[in-house]
């Protein structure tokens, strides 16, 4: 079974300002610093944040399910403002997902605002896991809401 889940939020900052956060490794550092209940740490295993970068994402102790996963950034497109990653080890793969990927996009609405969006794509053989996928997007919803607050505050400085 294949599926996708997505969510988006409008942000009153220019798209290029939002992409400075979403399109770089700064997003990982932001999550660790501002949302320590979501991620404990992010280690760069290989790369510089561009296409091909491999990250080890570690969850806080006591997080149910999975202690960590490694993801590879398959696409980082600065012109179209999107990046796409795939879990390649641990995490969702260990839980039984055949494929688990995340795409972040920054879509220009006008010169002063944009929409930030995430899409989770997954493939599972066990249908019960597909139902579990919906609960795993809650942290991503928290990320885009917190990023919105951060970006708006930063733009006022």
Layout of secondary structure:
Elements: E1 2-11, H1 15-22, H2 26-34, E2 41-46, E3 54-58, E4 68-77, E5 82-90, H3 91-95, E6 97-110, E7 113-124, H4 127-133, H5 138-156
Antiparallel strand pairs: 1-7, 2-3, 3-4, 4-5, 5-6, 6-7
Structure write-up:
Residues 1-154 form the Bet v I/Major latex protein domain. Belongs to the BetVI family. Strands 1-7-6-5-4-3-2 form a 7-stranded antiparallel sheet. By secondary structure, it is an alpha+beta fold. It has helices at residues 15-22, 26-34, 91-95, 127-133, 138-156; strands at residues 2-11, 41-46, 54-58, 68-77, 82-90, 97-110, 113-124. A hairpin with a 7-residue loop joins β2 (41-46) and β3. The relative contact order is 0.24. It has 5 helices and 7 strands, in the order βααββββαββαα.
């Amino acid at each position: 079974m294949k599926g996708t889940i997505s969510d988006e939020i409008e942000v009153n900052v220019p798209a290029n300002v939002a992409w400075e956060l979403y399109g770089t490794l700064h997003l990982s550092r932001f999550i660790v610093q501002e949302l320590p209940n979501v991620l404990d740490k992010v280690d760069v295993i290989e790369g510089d944040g561009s296409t091909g970068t491999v990250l080890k994402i570690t969850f806080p102790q006591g997080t149910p399910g999975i202690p960590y996963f490694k993801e590879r950034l398959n696409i980082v497109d600065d012109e179209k403002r999107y990046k796409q990653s795939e879990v390649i080890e641990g995490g969702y793969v260990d839980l039984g997902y055949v494929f688990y990927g995340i795409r972040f996009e920054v879509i220009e609405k006008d010169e002063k605002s944009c929409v930030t969006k995430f899409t989770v794509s997954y493939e599972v053989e066990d249908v019960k896991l597909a139902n579990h996928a919906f609960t795993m997007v809650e942290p991503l919803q928290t990320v885009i809401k917190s990023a919105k607050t951060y970006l708006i505050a930063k733009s006022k400085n």
